[in-house]
Every structure is written in C-alpha cells, then in structure tokens.
Automatic annotation (TrEMBL):
This is Cysteine desulfurase. It comes from the Bacteria. The lineage of its organism: Bacteria, Pseudomonadati, Pseudomonadota, Alphaproteobacteria, Hyphomicrobiales. It catalyses: (sulfur carrier)-H + L-cysteine = (sulfur carrier)-SH + L-alanine. The keyword Hydrolase does not apply. Its cofactor is pyridoxal 5'-phosphate. GO terms for molecular function: cysteine desulfurase activity; iron-sulfur cluster binding; metal ion binding. Keywords: Iron, Iron-sulfur, Metal-binding, Pyridoxal phosphate, Transferase.
Length: 384
C-alpha cells in the first residue's frame, strides 16, 4: 500500500503491527480453548485476555462479551425476539432506523411483519418524534440505531434514543462498529443494552466481531448451537488468533484515540476546505455531528463510479459508500432515506481517513479531485 494513498478506512483498515504480532503468537498456541490441559488453558488465557480488553474499551464486563465471526453475525445475534431485562417484559417487535447497515435492516430473527423503519432527518439523524410515535403504537420493542453512520459519518443521538426507548419499556441495540476507535463512548453512558463491534475497523483482522451486553440482559438465543462456547451463546471453537488480534488492536486504538481523533478532524477540515472550492459541492450531513474522519460529497452531474475509478487511476482508494455490496457501485439507501434526489445519491463519493493519513495524502487527493471536477465541468459546457 506504500505506493498508493488509502482513503477508504471506513470500509476496512490496515492490520496494526500489534494485531499482527498477537495473531502470530496465537498461531503457535496449540491447545483448544475448551480443553482443560495446559495447552488448552494457554489458549483460553489468550481468549480471555482479549475479551477483557474489548470489555474495558466500552465499559462492559468480560463475561458479557460474545465473540462472533464478524459484525454482521453479531448484529444478527442481537436482533432476537424475546430479549428482556431481568425484570422486564420480552420485546416482540423491532424498530430500525432507515440508515442502518444492511445486516440490521434485514431484521435478524424478527419476522418481516414485526419490523418497522424509523425515519431520519435531512441531516441524516434519527427522527426522534417518529421514534416516539412508533414506540407508542404497539408492544415493547427492540430498537436498533447505529452510533455513527458508515457513509455520512453522522453521529446519532443515541443517548436521547436510549431515554425514549427505555421510557417506553423497550431495549436498545447500538451498532457501534463505525464509531469504535474513532470517538469515545461506553455502553452504559450511551444507554445501550446491546452493542456490536468489529475488529477490522480498528486495525484488527477481518472475520472477527463481538456483541457486548449489559448485565441485565436475558433471553439471548444463540444463532449457532452445539458446544457450550461463549457461555452457551455462540457455539463453535473460538478463532483464537483472530480474537487475540482483536484484543491487541483494541488496546492500541484506545491508547491513541484522543490524539488520533483530533488529528484526523484537522485533516478532514483541510480536505473539506479544498473540496468547497468546487462550485456546487455538497458535503452530506455537513452540519450534523460527524466522525472526525469521514466526508461524503458530490456535485450535480457526478457519477460515483466515474469518480471512484478516476481516483483509483490516480493511485487513491476511495469508495461510493458502504463496502458491503459485493463490489457494486449503487445508489445509497442512506441518502435516499435523507430525502436526497436520486441523481445526487448516485454521485456520492466517500473519503475516510485513518491513523496513517497525512497532509500530503489529502493534498494529492484534492489534486486528483480537481482534475475530475474540471473534466466534469468541461463536459457540462460541451453539452450546454
């Protein structure tokens, strides 16, 4: 990656050295974590040390962290009918915001008839009044609202959402994958009952995620049944190397979080100052609270696939939004939910920054963008 500029950190991140070292050490651990002999106990220590690191990062308890194969699986595990607090009533329906990741929009194990969609504002934030209305019109609900949007970077008012949901006797699941390692938060401070995380967004490996619960949660039914791993909540031999790397990446990300967030926000402001020199530029969710590293933008007439290819030919990796569409460049359901014109939505381009992004990277990206924008403007003049 040294000869290219990588500005697609919201899709995935490079593997941190700490995570790579933890994986390599775990590969030399011969035992099965469920075995009681010395080798098994050694593997178990690796898993539990990582579990403690993930729990500490979000203010949870180690025994309430459930490792899964990815964030999508962790989301599916969370979206379970019948969840309840120790003394509460089980949830019987699911409310999801219109801008959630597709793994949440699919509804997990709720039937299609039990799922309702919460509207969002033009700024890409959850419509709290619509949430209140939906909660008032039916039995207790599980509500799923992400911490921060993967496309626009808009940080959702999850604290207010939690108050509304709990007052109505419901539960709150927060997909925190995109915010983890970028902004500080804890599961209890944001009012979440269930929290989803993923390693590969913070410098860990792909293929390992986690669901974090509060201690009051009851009724979580496993997706995978078999052995008693993860306290009976997720069967299957643990991915010891992936879990070890997740723990190491978590420690590294938390250690650098405050300074890294400030630096990335400075770089994002530099980027957007340059972008704003282009006539008719639109930066989505510009006036909403956003992740410090994320810019989603367009100009009228731009085609996202053309821009992504143009940046790529200049040696710069960007995206048109979510990376979870099998490589397809397609209109954003997030922008559609925000009420954006379909043509504008088809032209959205996302640049997302990371811990190794430099001012030079930003300046070269702006240079590439100016070339693309000039070509777009010339094309407009030629067809006028």
């Amino acid at each position: 990656m040294s000869d290219r500029i990588y500005l697609d950190w919201n899709a995935t991140t490079p593997l941190r050295p700490e995570a790579r070292q933890a994986m390599a050490a775990a590969w030399d651990t011969a035992g099965n974590p469920s075995s009681v002999h010395a080798e098994g106990r050694q593997a178990r220590r690796v898993v539990e040390d990582a579990r403690a690191a993930v729990a500490a990062a979000v203010g949870g308890r180690s025994q309430d962290v459930v490792f899964a194969s990815c964030g999508t699986e962790a989301n599916a595990l969370a979206l379970t009918p019948g969840l309840r607090r120790t003394s509460g009533e089980p949830v019987r329906r699911l409310l999801v915001s219109a801008i959630e990741h597709t793994s949440v929009l699919s509804g997990g194990r709720f039937s299609a008839g039990a799922i309702q969609t919460i509207k969002v504002t033009a700024s890409g934030l959850v419509d709290l009044d619509h949430l209140r209305a939906l909660l008032a019109d039916g039995p207790p609900a599980l509500v799923s609202v992400m911490l921060a949007n993967n496309e626009t970077g808009a940080i959702q008012p999850v604290g207010e959402v939690a108050d509304i949901v709990h007052e109505a006797g419901g539960l709150l699941h927060v997909d925190a994958i995109q915010g983890f390692g970028k902004i500080p938060f804890e599961i209890k401070s944001i009012g979440a009952d269930l929290l989803t995380l993923s390693a590969h967004k913070i410098g860990g490996p792909k293929g390992i995620g986690a669901l974090v619960l509060t201690e009051e949660m009851q009724g979580l039914e496993p997706l995978l049944r078999g052995g008693g791993q993860e306290l009976g909540r997720r069967a299957g031999t643990e991915n010891v190397a992936g879990i070890a790397a997740f723990g190491a990446a978590t420690k590294a990300a938390m250690a650098e979080l405050p300074a890294s967030a400030i630096r990335q926000q400075d770089l994002r402001e530099r980027l957007e100052k340059g972008l704003n020199q282009t006539p008719e530029i639109i930066v989505f969710s510009e006036h909403a609270p956003r992740l410090p590293n994320t810019t989603l933008f367009t100009v009228p007439g731009l085609r996202a696939e053309t821009a992504v290819i143009g940046f790529d030919l200049s040696g710069i990796s960007v995206s048109s939004g979510s990376a979870c569409s099998s490589g397809k460049v397609q209109p954003s359901h997030v922008l559609a939910a925000m009420g954006l014109d379909g043509k504008l939505a088809k032209g959205a381009v996302r640049l997302s920054l990371g811990w190794s992004t430099t001012e030079t990277d930003i300046d070269l990206a702006l240079e590439a963008w100016r070339t693309l924008a000039d070509a777009l403007l010339r094309g407009r003049r030629n067809t006028a």
